[in-house]
């Protein structure tokens, strides 16, 4: 018998996911569903699947699966969309929401005007540059030399609840993100694979970033990647602690506060469409 799953398609800075309520996907294999529903020819088409769940530890919970079915710990762009989803669908009237993720509880601060969530600030927590946290198979995490297609690049590794390898380049436009990103993602250096960010510093307050996401390929945006890039830029003396990050899908603002050591990500969240997905 054909089964139907109601879904919402949403995007944050072009990072698009399919959002479903866990009440409608009971007894469904999430990784398999993520692969099928993310397919841009035979499915809905997305960077992955987000399942909104109840939580005993927070107001709500979120599980996030990449387009290849692998589960990620956290997604900054997706969490902003979850906040908009919950508020505008009437699941909550709170404008500050706690959200349980695989990487811990995150706080969403919804910026609401006339009943519409215009933007969301996510407390992304404290970054880590410890090898074991990322993880990376070397005892240091800054300026790791890697030969990529005959060029030596230096990667700075940061965990934002998931692994990131950040390298600084002179120009992001026209850069071979797929060729270099795919190679670095799968290096034995990264036992759980890694997201790869290519960053061009424009000024102490502004960077361009392109990203190769673990399990999804190049995407138009990555919230945790934007945060990791700013952390790496600050540690390298390239930027200040408040930075606008230009992504292929739009802009986000990242602040790594010195007062509490936490990273805050602010950006928009948009509905794309809603529908029903058929599962045999």
Helices and strands: which structural class? alpha+beta
Rg, please?
18 Å
Approximately how much helix is present in the residues?
A: 10-25%
Strand content: over 45%
What does the overall shape look like? globular
Number of helices: 4
Report the biggest beta sheet as strand number plus sense, adding barrel if it closes.
18 strands, mixed
Low-confidence stretches: none
- The overall pLDDT average reads 97
List the keywords:
45% strand, 280 residues, 18-stranded mixed sheet, alpha+beta, 4 helices, 18 strands, single chain
Question: Concise description?
Answer:
The protein is α+β, with helices and mostly antiparallel strands and 280 residues long. 16% of the residues lie in helices and 45% in strands.
Helix-strand layout with pairing:
Elements: E1 3-12, E2 15-21, H1 30-38, E3 48-53, E4 60-66, E5 71-72, H2 76-88, E6 96-101, E7 104-113, E8 116-125, E9 144-148, E10 151-159, E11 163-168, H3 177-185, E12 195-203, E13 206-213, E14 217-219, H4 223-235, E15 242-247, E16 250-256, E17 263-267, E18 270-279
Parallel strand pairs: 2-3, 4-6, 11-12, 13-15
Antiparallel strand pairs: 1-2, 1-18, 3-4, 4-5, 6-7, 7-8, 8-17, 9-10, 10-11, 12-13, 13-14, 15-16, 16-17
General description of the model:
This protein is of the alpha+beta class. 16% of the residues lie in helices and 45% in strands. It has 4 helices and 18 strands. The protein has helices spanning 30-38, 76-88, 177-185, 223-235, and strands at residues 3-12, 15-21, 48-53, 60-66, 71-72, 96-101, 104-113, 116-125, 144-148, 151-159, 163-168, 195-203, 206-213, 217-219, 242-247, 250-256, 263-267, 270-279. The chain has an 18-stranded mixed sheet that branches. Helix 1 links the parallel strand 2 (15-21) and strand 3 (48-53). The longest helix has 13 residues, at 76-88. The protein is globular, with a radius of gyration of 18 Å. The protein starts with a strand and ends with a strand. The mean pLDDT is 97.
